UniProtKB/TrEMBL annotation:
Topological type in the membrane: Multi-pass membrane protein
Domain Ionotropic glutamate receptor L-glutamate and glycine-binding residue range list: 238-301
Protein's recorded name: Ionotropic receptor 3
Organism listed in the record: Conogethes pinicolalis
Family assignment from sequence similarity: Belongs to the glutamate-gated ion channel (TC 1.A.10.1) family.
Amino acid sequence: MKKIILLCVVLYANTLADLTPILKGLNERKDLEKILVDLLNEMTRLDDEITCMTFVCDAVYLNVFDGDLFKRTAAVPIVMIVVEDYEDLLSPNFDTLESLREARKDGCNVYVIFLANGLQTSRLLRFGDRYRILDTRAKYIMLHDYRLFHSDLHYLWKRIINVLFLRYHSISVGAPKSKAWFDLSTVPFPNPIKGVFVSRRVDIWNNGRFHYNRTLFADKTSNLNNEVLNVVYLDHVPSVVVTKTNETNKVGGVEIEILNTLAKQMNFQPKLYQPINVDLYKWGQVQANGSFSGLLGEMVNGQADVALGNLQYNPYHLELTDLSIPYTSQCFTFLTPEALTDNSWKTLILPFKLYMWIAVLLVLLISGTIFFGLARYYMNLQEFKKTHVVSKDARTYSEKEKEYLYESEKPAGLYLFGEIINSILYTYGMLLVVSLPKLPTGWSLRLLTGWYWLYCILVVVSYRASMTAILANPAPRVTIDTLKELVESKIACGGWGTETKKFFQKSSDEIETIGQRFEIINDPFEAANKVARGVYAYYDNQDFLKYISVKRKNVDMNINSDVNATTANGTEMISMDVERNLHIMSDCVVNTPISIGFHKNSPLKPLADIYMRRIVEVGLVEKWLNDAMHPIRALETKEDEVKALMNLKKLYGAFIALAIGYSISTICLIGEFIHWHLVVKRDPKFDKYALDVYYMNKNKKQ
């Protein structure tokens, strides 16, 4: 593989030729070059994963990197960056910055930093860590300088742990035959730095060889020697579940189980604590002075090593912390109110849909018309026989025969359908399974009646079965299950944090509309109260929404430390007999990966990711999730259990139908009274003592 050399700053030739007093004491700069050659060759021999090397130096140490060094080292791509001695590396110039970015992009995992000014080195490390320009998990070789170990820089050595400090020791006074030697030391990870930085010796290089032949870059994260790590947590079901027992809190949940597994495998002791005012700040956000509050504030300030609290794998959190690989994906949606629409008054029409009712009414009208037509046909036929056949042949019959013939020819049963109104009423009566007072005359009418009865039986059985199911089951719930329905409902939406609001505001379509009326709220139980009043929709993951909806109905449920009759900010919860039930929207707004957090550029993340992947693959996360949600799901199932009970409310429809019948009958009765007094009594021919004669004459006129 060809070597790549990138020079960012071109120095003058006379500057390169001159030797400063710092280098004159290094035996014509050969000792530093020799140890660097030995170190690089040892690293490439033991580590096959070295992909690229980055050399950062100034004019003082540029002469160390001459042609012999590249000839005597393995063929590995090299990016070389030369900086001016006056350059402020906390804000490097464009060439230096682009070279550092290119080195990071190319995956360089070895950095050799030889700068005469220790302040320049420290500022370069601070800049690289803040903006992730340097790969803090790479291997570093740099000169020993006390200015690198100032207390303000101690946080760097919790992130850059694969580092070797080269400390030069000149020839001992009084020993003319002794040679210069180098002390190789590193940071004391995993032991915490307490006040004063004390480096840990790795090896000694003298006369072209290593004295102890120890591993130069040993893995410091596989065994943390039972060190105590600060773990900040936030109570958020199901990731972290806090159970209050007497005066102590028992912490459990999915992420606690993951933490315990990592602690066992990596040999460390977790020290759990919550941030100050956790109920108010929760995850935290940027303050007016630029600092962060809450859980993220503990991570940004370097107070905590690990963070647990349902951290979403998104750019905002990735910028502030290091997130493990996601261990699950959660559905984030809204907790919405159920509508209070009571359709008990529609009980009588609910068994059939609209088109079914239209079909039944059409069949009723058509069948009544057919019955009327057939009845009129038979009545006309009887009249024809009476006037033509019986009258002409009357002389051939005796008196008894004539009497029998007249009786047999009377239209028995045809009066049921002889008038259109009666025909519709009796057809409607058959539909209600009311038997006819008498079978009609005529085989066509009788056959039609039989088949119509079969149709009525099928319709009535279907109606009764559907009616039984409606009366036995609870009334259907009117819920909001899509973003479109939520937008059309016009209710306010909200959730925790400004970042959540920005997510909705920067989105498109329905989500952008929701962002315009999105309100930030810190207390989920206060939000649940507003949802119960039907004026709000609260945004969070499905499991947490299920938890707060169940917990709100069971204030004595011993799941969280703040389970009581008040919310976190002290406001009283409204009565459990709320106006509306809480419903979790079935559509997911977004499925978000969830991770546990490490402090920025944490050296623990690579190994923790390996163990995390194994935990997910064997199904432990799913098992722990079911364990965390089991008590909540059990209470939810118990609440949703429905019994087939009848109550007065379900019979509202019957009473409404009865009321409608009474009302129409009363109106008809009043109409008849009005017609009697205003029309009938004012007729000149009306005689109240001979009503039969009056109506007989009136019918003859008609």
